[in-house]
């Protein structure tokens, strides 16, 4: 696929925005790029395009190259993706990922680009309000994964608007990977199947006690109480989640069995639980905190009790920093690692790992359906949180879907038991779910 620079611009010795953008892509652009100065790059017949609307957007791109600059310009409405809906830019992201490779300009090229586009654009504009502080600023103002800092970053992501989450997640209010069995299941059917799978892995039954850490809007807590007669306690660091969840418990008449508290999991002192579920919490606690995390959860279990840990993982166990967009706009301080590290940490804490399962492609389907919900309710979502935040969610969900499809990230459920002193676990010789 070829691209065409503005006629005459090279001869004038001065690059347009389109010239500069086209030059920095190896092999040519797969989409149509247009800019406010009238310049273009890329094929004129491309179905997907990118339009730079303002000088502020250019300054974002020049002062923060890579995904951070693009995120700032896109969130601030200074950059548009054309040919796709902002609630589901999946097709554009696949195109860019498969066919766009940016290169670092030579020093001479860099000087020429800056001179042509203007030195004034090297003055960084203020970041959009949706952007969190950089890692070093967060470290200066509070230790990573301290009680105070964890509460703040969780609020950044989850205390957006309960109504917004209702529109995107659907009636289940489950913000974790669903189980598409069969693959044609609806989102609600798949979420119900996921919670049923967790309950069966934990062997929940009437009269048992369940602790659900990082419980979100209390869907697992309510499922365990309603479907299995379990006395369930959920804890979450999000005040808005806790309020919504407790109201849902009362609405469903489950107050005698279920409770959700606005509380850090580390502050739970009760013990003797028959089961502990952790669905989507491990991503937030930090890899170096795994020993304390699994040790704390083991101490909450009665001998013979089961722990189900459900979280996003990497396909390797090496250190890898989260990208700037995810860290600044979506999950500040989030950390991912391979399932091997999680299993080793659980074992080192004195738990016997009984089973591990990868649900990677199920998460790709979940994200697809969340994007569809965002598109369907786009106007109401924008009215609720603003177009900039809605755009962040569209590109985050679609980009994550691509990551799960390409095996850049995975989703593992790890099931473990706290055994009795004689080594017995109560676990069957083969999985019984």
UniProtKB/TrEMBL annotation:
Annotated protein name in UniProt: Class I SAM-dependent methyltransferase
Family: Belongs to the CFA/CMAS family.
Annotated signal peptide: none
Any Pfam family: CMAS
Domain of life of the source: Bacteria
Species this chain originates from: Nocardioides glacieisoli
CDD domains: AdoMet_MTases
Entry keywords, A to Z: Lipid metabolism, Methyltransferase, S-adenosyl-L-methionine, Transferase
GO biological process: lipid biosynthetic process; methylation
PANTHER family given in the database record: CYCLOPROPANE-FATTY-ACYL-PHOSPHOLIPID SYNTHASE
Transferase listed as a keyword: yes
Entry annotated with the keyword Mitochondrion: no
């Amino acid at each position: 696929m070829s691209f065409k620079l503005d006629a005459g611009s090279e001869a004038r010795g001065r690059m347009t925005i389109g010239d500069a953008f086209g030059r920095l892509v190896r092999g040519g652009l797969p989409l149509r790029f247009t800019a406010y100065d009238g310049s273009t790059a890329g094929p004129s017949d491309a179905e997907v395009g990118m339009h730079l609307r303002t000088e502020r957007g250019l300054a974002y791109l020049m002062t923060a190259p890579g995904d951070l600059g693009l995120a700032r310009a896109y969130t601030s409405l200074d950059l548009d993706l054309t040919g796709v809906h902002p609630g589901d830019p999946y097709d554009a992201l696949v195109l860019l990922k498969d066919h766009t490779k940016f290169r670092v300009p030579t020093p001479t090229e860099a000087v020429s680009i800056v001179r042509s586009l203007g030195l004034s654009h090297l003055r960084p504009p203020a970041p959009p309000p949706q952007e969190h502080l950089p890692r070093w600023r967060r470290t200066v103002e509070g230790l990573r994964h301290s009680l105070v800092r964890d509460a703040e970053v969780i609020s950044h992501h989850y205390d957006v608007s309960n109504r917004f989450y209702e529109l995107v997640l659907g009636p289940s209010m489950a913000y974790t990977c669903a189980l598409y069995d069969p693959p044609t299941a609806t989102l609600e059917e798949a979420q119900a199947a996921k919670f049923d799978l967790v309950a069966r892995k934990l062997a929940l039954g009437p009269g048992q006690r369940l602790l659900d850490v990082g419980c979100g809007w209390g869907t697992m807590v309510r499922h365990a109480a309603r479907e299995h007669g379990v006395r369930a306690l959920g804890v979450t660091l999000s005040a808005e989640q806790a309020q919504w969840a407790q109201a849902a418990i009362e609405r469903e008449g489950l107050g005698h069995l279920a409770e959700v508290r606005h509380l850090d999991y580390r502050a739970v002192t009760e013990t003797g639980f028959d089961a502990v579920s952790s669905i989507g919490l491990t991503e937030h606690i930090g890899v170096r905190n795994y020993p304390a995390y699994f040790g704390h959860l083991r101490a909450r279990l009665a001998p013979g009790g089961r722990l189900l840990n459900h979280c996003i993982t990497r396909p390797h166990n090496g250190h890898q920093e989260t990208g700037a967009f995810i860290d600044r706009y979506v999950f500040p301080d989030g950390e991912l690692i391979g399932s091997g590290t999680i299993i080793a940490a659980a074992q080192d804490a004195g738990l016997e790992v009984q089973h591990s399962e990868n649900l990677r492609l199920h998460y790709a389907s979940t994200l697809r359906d969340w994007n569809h919900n965002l598109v369907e309710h786009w106007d109401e979502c924008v009215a609720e949180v603003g177009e900039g935040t809605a755009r962040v969610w569209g590109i985050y969900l679609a980009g994550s879907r691509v990551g799960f499809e390409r095996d850049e990230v995975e989703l593992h459920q790890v099931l473990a038991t706290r055994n009795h002193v004689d080594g017995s676990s109560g676990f069957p010789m083969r999985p019984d779910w």
